[in-house]
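Running log. JK asked me to keep both predictions on one page so they can be read side by side. First protein, sequence followed by its tokens:
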Amino acid sequence: MFSRLVGDFPSNLLIKQKDVAEVDRIIERLYDVYSADEDPWGMRMDRVASSFRQVWPLYKYFFQVRVIGAENVVDAPSLVVSNHSGQIAIDGMLLTQAFAAAVSPPRVIRAMVERFFVGLPFLGTWAAESGAVLGDRSNCIELLKRGHSVLVFPEGVRGVSKSSSEYYKIQPFSRGFLRMALQSRCPLLPVAVVGAEEFYPYVYQFKRVAKMLGLPALPVTPLFPLLGPLGAIPLPSPVDIHIGEPYYLPDSLSPDAPDKQIDEHVYEIENTIRRMIKRGLRKRRPFWFNKQVKL
């Protein structure tokens, strides 16, 4: 136990003294839930622990994350389905932190990430060792079979690569996540993230230039790329994570069902998250750059 708590001592430097014991307790519980054995996808529990410590100041103090509906998380493998927002993958990082910090028992949800992200220097390795996995159907199904919960963003890159005029407008969901849930026979857990769009309140997407450069998106803000990396620092918008009730698919529905039958449930999940966003926007905390959004 002692080595687990002090092995990442430098990571504790930005954690307020009153929170150190809570962080230590959560990490101990994670070790109780998850084996330290080798993970086929590269997750390392020591890296999960150090990442949890490093992200805590952002989660707790900078973005002041609140989790509403943690009691809806079932103690079984689930496919966590969320809207995607905020231009970069900060929402995924905060969701992963939330399921470890605010859910009982704590869990490491395995986030499905885009192929381009896996190949990024340093970040790709850090994400894999912290539990992220290439967004491949076979990976997702195998993780669910092994008892892990998996985080998916059915909007894909389209969800984060929006101009500010499209904030909180959900992009059409793909069908793949629903077929994966059917194949593994696990519940779907709808999640709505509110507050991440305001990380960068004024954004224009140069989609044509991004396509020419082979990039998934090219956001331009009043400060980025003008100020370089400094211009990419997000604003401290408070984030609310709303977790809905589990959605169980009918036993009679086959993973190979026609698209029309699959789409009925895709639209239901999509509309559930849309309603959760609407409610969340009405209850969000004050922030300088909050906008009135018509959905």
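And the second, directly underneath as requested:
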Amino acid sequence: MEEEQHLSFFLEWYDPQSDQHKPYVLHYHSDSTIELIERYNKRVFLKRIRIPTVTLDDLVPGGSITVYSRQLTVLDVANEYTKQLVKKKATKALFVIRPKGYAHMGAIIKVLEQSGLVLLNAVMVQLQQYHMNALRPHCLQTSSATLRGGGDDAEFLRDVSVLVEVKLTTPNAFEDALGKLDAARLMGNVLICESVGLGIFSSPHSGSSVSSKQPMLSGFPTTAVFDNCTLCLLKPRMIREGRVGDILDEIVKAGFEISALTLLHLQINDADEFFRVYKGVLRQYHEVLKYMCSGPCVALEIRGEDVVQRFRDFCGPFDVQIAQALRPASLRAKFGKSNLFNAVHCTDCPEDGVLESQFIFHALASK
């Protein structure tokens, strides 16, 4: 009998007790079961089993999965067969939300999610001329008639843009997204690049003059200000269920200023360091850590006067049932399911707003 083909990936797990990174090979089978093999001695670490929280969409380089409380980082595909199948399945596209489209960023991302596009990366950036030069050859003519001639660069150089890298999950997802953006009259707020991602900006001859000491998010300097700010984390379920656009739309329409944005994968040690201040009040502390590391989050720096208190009120009580009873218009009331799956984290104490923003947008970005 011919042996079943399966997808294989290189992973590693950081063992805090031995302070070592332990390498594994994960086999992903056609029935969605997985198997873990110790990479170098070939011993079976985990026999073939189905883990409902681990899907093929989670197995992307740089991402992470959680298997029985162990957070494993996906390093790369393990063979040419997997490389070709993943490449065929995971066609990318890049949407650049223009500075003038800031107020519509939530609506634009909502359209992408509703069209079946999966967020791979998102980051708020201040583009430079060398970025525009790298971007120009890849833009669709429908979204960049003036950009191709260089006359439109000034808008991008003056203010921040949001880069959104997506994976196409169906053959028609890209065209569906374009049609919906056009129907919603949002096309003028976005540049669209087919079959590329943020990697187009990583050319070694890009001409960047950014200091190597500056914190970088997906290769870009952070736009975080670290002043009069609070932190919001959109939790993994919001990304999995395609609700990022909905929440961003609510935040912007409520009048809050989003000064920094990034999609990130928290590692368990980083999550523990960040949430340790809440350890005494979180009843499911270790479950919270595992959940926050189970998939990507979206982090936002939000600015304004008395913003910690105002945004905390906007998010609503931590307990979703209380939020639905007392603040039905709050984010947790609208998007939360339980205390663990309550949609968002927000800074609790006014003195912690800058500290939490610095942790995400400076300390983690500097690692």
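Observation for JK regarding the second prediction: The radius of gyration is 21 Å.
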